[in-house]
Structures
1.
Amino acid sequence: MTSVSSSSEFHHQHHFKSADHQYASSKQGIWLFLCTEILMFGGLFVGYLIYHSMYPTVFKNGSETLDWKMGAVNTVVLLVSSFTMAAAINYVQRGLHKIAAIMLALTIACAAAFMVIKYFEYSHKFHVGTVPGKFSLVDPSCGAGGKRAECESKIAALLKNPAELEKNHVSAEEVTRLKAVISQPKWEMFYGFYFVMTGLHGIHVVAGALLIFWIFIKTLRRKVGPEYYTPVEGVGLFWHVVDLVWIYLFPLLYLVG
Amino acid sequence: MSSAHTKTEHGHTDHNYLNHGSGIWSWMTTLDHKRIGLMYFATVATLFLIGGFFALGIRLHLAKFGAEPLLSPDTYNKFMTFHGAIMVFMVIIPGIPAFLGNFVLPIQLGAKDVAFPRLNLASYYIFIAGALIAASSMIFNQVDTGWTFYTPYSTAKTSNGVILLVLGAFTMGFSSILTGLNFIVTTHKLRAPGMTMDRIPLMIWALYSTSIIQILATPILAITLLLIGAEKTLGVGIFDPDLGGDPVLFQHFFWFYSHPAVYIMILPAMGVISELITAFSKKTIFGYRAIAYSSVAIAAVSFLVWGHHMFVSGQSTIAGIVFSIITMFVGVPTAIKLFNWISTMYRGTVTFEAPMLFALGFMFLFTIGGLTGVFLASTGMDVHFHDTYFVVAHFHYVMVGGTLMALMGGIFYWFPKMFGKMTSDLGGRISWVLIFTGFNVTFFPQFVLGAMGMPRRYFDYLPEYTNLNQISTVGSWLIGLGFLVGLITIIHGILKGEKASDNPWGAKTLEWQTSSPPPHENFTTTPTVTAGPYDFR
């Protein structure tokens, strides 16, 4: 083996020349993987763009039924988490394990908060029936032969029932919006995109939180530190991509309309 | 486990990667790229046998030797689907990169391993998981959509088995991305001292270009397959016209991956051929840079040509013309390679061992496949040939005649390095004669059938197509026999082959400078490279 030029004592894998060499390689690998993540979401964005131009009114009406306040809060939550994550990387690099662990825990807490807010948003949609495809129908078996126009949707059923409206906290304003939505054919299309895009993003949030938990443990056990922080940085980069995707999703779904 | 073996044994030629650890567990948990390559070999070969079984079933049915049809229409569609899905996703796409690439790439670079050995093992198991998920649809809920999963049939009409098959393909795509990522980083970061980018072997250039396609195209397939799954389970209606979706969008998405995927299949094959042609001509490769950069050029152009699959889908005339022109551009870098290979052989000391025969077979068959591709790239002719047996013959010439020929050639070429033993050259040659002959007997008549108008994918045909179909079926048995002979030759070589020297072909690339089989860390001392890869004369 060639002599290790780096002064660090840290052990690196046998096929790398030095810890720096290993770090540079790992970082390149992580960036390449993040490219694939962006491209995968890119496919969805392209689809959204196409259908937005095909059904502009559907997407406008659908967008107005989303709760932009919750979306905005979630954006702030994720931005804060990106800050705590970046801080955690910095503290690990400086060997301040305790405060790094606190920052990581805060990041996980933000991820959890994001998912809780998402849960409230989703469950409201399940209640009022602004859900994708077949779940939007009162009877999911209805519309199998391409005759969906003749099926009654959950929203239509709900709007007829004042008691249910009140129970599910549907305001008069929201009733107007829901009526506007189902006045359009193919209105489920918007919610199809909404649930697929936010759902896939949500899966990434959960995966990211699990990864952060993994390096949280590593930090507590001092397996990472100033001489070796590749996993912390890698997970951090992943988390920033999760944040980045949301920063595009939020205006696209909630605001542009 | 890697840290335990950092002290290399010097001079012990009997100590190699095959006996570096023993027992099945040492293989299952190995981080050695060479062993992982061989594990892909065993897996892909098994899957190839299953895919081949379906192929023979299809051909036997279409021969109509008996009064009763062999398969019911429904079973026929399922046979066709599994044949296509297995061969594409599980054999031809991973075949050369994951098996030969994994084995050869680090040694040719003078590296001890790929950049991420654990990730490499993980991609193998992800591949296995994907293959199992996809295969489980054979047991639980068979699929009859064809491997392309065209919507709205796949999303609105057929069984839920599609979910399993697309989930399996999604998982295998993930494995493909991770392998590609690993190769790119390895090529960038782990080259031996002196191994500059213009000294890396052409196999590496091919694998590198392939990896770029894997990274850039596979995510689109992933999202497309996820959308099919979402459509099946949630009814989101992105592709189903009943729900407002657009089935043609599916075709755009699908071919945006699947056309570049054709080059995921063929670029590594071209890399293998570059190695074989120069080694068996004993002559420096002609136009190293032209071959290297043409690989990258093919990778780049591959992203701009998907629309030629959709000439009859109702896309605009302008789109059709543009896609037609760009598609024909692919011929330029491809021809550059072919002419360079031929120039390499010119005045070379050409010998015709089995690997070289496969390389020549590749050049012959791939040229026919490529030229007929020009027919299909022309919008006017494509309207006539679209979805006929002409297309079937064309892509079999490219994918089977190209990729499988190169795969077989590559196996026989690197076999001595893999196992330290020689295969019977006679066995390899017999295998080649059978595959080559059988292949032409099978698929050449299909060009004629297609030109006569026989549609592809159909369970039955008009009586005037009978004779050519029967010839084609006879050919398919010859191919099957050829691969059987090849398999026997390989197994015989593993068990009873003569001991191979370190460099039995007299080749110049780095993998032949180490012992056969190589030690665990590929080289006892890290090599220093001072010249190009094909320094013959």
Note: Chain A touches chain B through 46 residues (CB under 8 Å).
2.
Amino acid sequence: MKDNVTPDKTSAREVDLSRFRSIIAKYSDTTLSELVPVLQSLQDSYGYLPMEVLEELSASTGIPLSKIYGVVTFYAQFHLEPRGKHIVKLCSGTACHIKGAPDIEKRIADILQVEEGQTTQDYKFTYKAVACIGACFLAPVMMIDDRYYGKLTEEKTENILKNY
Amino acid sequence: MDKLETCDDLERLRKSLVSEESKEKIRILICTTGCRALGAEEVYRTFQAEIENQSLADKVEIIDTGCQGLCTRAPVLTIEPMGVFYGRVTENDVHEIISRTVLKGEVIERLCYTQEGKRIPYIKDIDFYRKQKKLVLRNCGSINPKNINDYIKRNGYAAISKALSGMSAEDVIHEVVSSGLRGRGGAGFPTGKKWELAKNAKGDVKYVICNGDEGDPGAFMDRAVLEGDPHSVIEGMLICAYAIGSGKGIIYVREEYPIAVEHLNIAVDNARSLGLLGENILGSGFCFDIEVKMGAGAFVCGEETALIASIEGRRGMPCPRPPYPSTSGLWGKPTNINNVETLANIPVIIFEGADSYRSIGTETSKGTKIFALAGNVNNTGLVEVPMGTSLREIVFDIGGGIPKRKQFKAAQMGGPSGGCVPEKYLDTPIDYESVKEIGAIMGSGGLIIMDDSTSMVEIARYFMEFCQNESCGKCTPCRVGTQRMLEILTRILAGEGKKEDLSLLSELAEVTRNSSLCGLGQTSANPVISTLYYFQNEYEELIAEKV
């Protein structure tokens, strides 16, 4: 993992801990109750949750690393690996499923040359299938970062991805 | 914004907002939430530019709203006061809409909704809208959710004001009890009763939690309410807090809903700066504030006890009940948890009174229910109907039937905890009890329509895959049961099914249902049980085919 390259081309070995310190300073009360929001902020900043950052978090808050790791691995939102510049989330809700999401899924994997859950070699895209994103009326639908793309066809999907 | 010091201040503000509103102004209401996916924001910006270019700001106003319901025509807009409804609007249509419809009152046929081959320009004539009853969605799609004044103008915060100025906590609870409102999150527990338990629980600190962790595949009503009318949820929480004696509220919302998070944060900030949240609300001495927390992506967190664990910063795993959250919830304190749609009902009940609310619905289920209508149906979108409406009315009258001249096969109700309802129950009036009898549940209201090309075994496999992924793993029946059922379903679909598989599936389903710790596990087998019951022939055909 440590040999991977983060999106901003900083080696994971040289995780910039000053960013960590400025984020952690915003939380007056870094007890367990703030753990999820702190992790969300850290991930927003780093793009993922580097192990060095988690170790530092444990050391500065006194929350055991095992507990932090347990929370990080429980929720779908958190990632321990660097991710791409753009996150492609294909909805796999029921409406999308019956309206052809499985075909779109294969197509995206084909275009990006990655499996679901993986990041492209150039760190441009991370591709995930996610549970319902609540836009069933647009099925099949995907989100790239915070933007929705609805009523997808294989061709439309390809054009959208090309424009990134 | 000046703080509102008394209930009279609020009423004065409302009156001045109503009188300031220019009656002559034409308002173009465009959905910029769900419709964003099909370019609504670009259309909105083009309207803004066009209004400025033509110096029409005195005559015309463009307002960005939440969901207007008929999502299938996205991006949609309504032009008031004429009540013209347009769909599939693009940037290129903007100039023509302004010059023809807004300035001359002409209708542009190609943008109108089609009903039985005819173009229907006015919203009041569209069956999709005519046959609904909008109570919870009363503001959704017709106000700007980012502007608290829009909500106040439509009697927003008048219900909490009514409660604070003339009702005791007992009165409020009595009103909610007699309204007959039941939890819209799925199980249908009487809301007033839940509040009563929290009120009677001992403790000086109590919490009100809004469960906005709607994660059922196929449900989007909570998202639409949070995005389109966040203040109605905040007002519902205020009334609940007043009734049970709580000073702190938390809205737990999915991080997958960025627009909902954005609108909620704006709404909470605005309510706070007007003094509708915080200390001494409207001079009554009542104090209550709200914090918005983002979930981190786990379906099981819809379960009350798991949600509490998640807010406490732990893995979101459920705990056995009792103790119920109403006596020992967040940080061990009495906690009342309601779902988004439930809370959005509250201001209506308090403002209009329980009697008027009770008059809608069936004997056991009062009020309305919002359904997220999707799948193989012409009018996908958000539908609010009185309890007791039949599936046929929802699917055919409101939903416009099945596309491509295909046949209705089943309606999947209630997400992974629900079941598939076959054609013969199309005329059953839908309420909490009747859906249970036919093997589904109300759930949060996801309603996926399937046509005759859908494989019901594949649907069962799909839901099982979802539940198996989302099982938290704490209890064995759920962790292992879903795994084994998924294996069998996958095998049958791969053409390697055996005759004994069906009885094995039933057995596994029963054990998982009867012995899992929480609702996720207990109901995970429902799609399997209902498809096995109503569509056994499809399983048998798949098993026979391989021979």
Note: Chain B has 22 helices and 15 strands.
